[in-house]
Design goal:
single chain, alpha/beta, Rossmann fold, 6-stranded parallel sheet, 5 helices, about 40% helix
Length: about 140
Amino acid sequence: MPKVLIVYDTKTGKTEKMAFEIAKGIGKVKGIEIFLRKVSEVKPSEVKESQAIIIGSPTHNAEVSREIWKFLKEMEKFDLKDKLGSAFGSYGWSGEAVSHLIGSMQSFGMSIVGFGISVQDVPNESDLAECRKLGEVIAERLQKN
Ligand SMILES: Cc1cc2nc3c(=O)[nH]c(=O)nc-3n(C[C@H](O)[C@H](O)[C@H](O)COP(=O)(O)O)c2cc1C
C-alpha cells in the first residue's frame, strides 16, 4: 500500500489545522496509508517507507522552525530521490518557510507537487479546501504508480 508522511511543526495550531485537512484530502482516495506526525514524533522508518512526504512549518525568523530544520538535516541521510514532496505552513508577516521547504526538497531530488501552500495567520475555508485538494492530488498520483 502506498504511504504518505505528513510531518509538521506548530506552536499555535494553525499549521496543524492545514496538516489535518491535507490528511482528509488523502483520505478521499482509497488504499493510501497516512502517517500524520508532529515533527517530534516522526520515526525514521516512516521517512524511508513513504512514497510522498509533505512538510509543514510556521515561519520563524524568516526560516522554517528549528525543529523542522533539524528534521531536514535528518532527511539528508535518506535516499529521497523520486519521492513526491510538497510543503505548507502558516506565517505572520513575511512567510519564508514554505519556499525554503520546497527548495530543500528539490535539493534532495524529490519531485515537487504544486507550489506549496503558504497562508497568512489562520487558514480560511478556501485555504483549507486547497489543503484537501493537495492531499487528494498527491494520493491520486501515488495510486496510479
Ligand atoms: C519565534 C517566532 C518567530 C516568528 N518569525 C516570523 C517571521 O520571521 N516571519 C513571519 O511571517 N512570521 C513569523 N512568526 C509568526 C508565525 O509564523 C505565525 O504566528 C504562524 O501563524 C504560526 O503558525 P502555527 O500556529 O502553526 O505555530 C514568528 C513566530 C514566532 C513564535
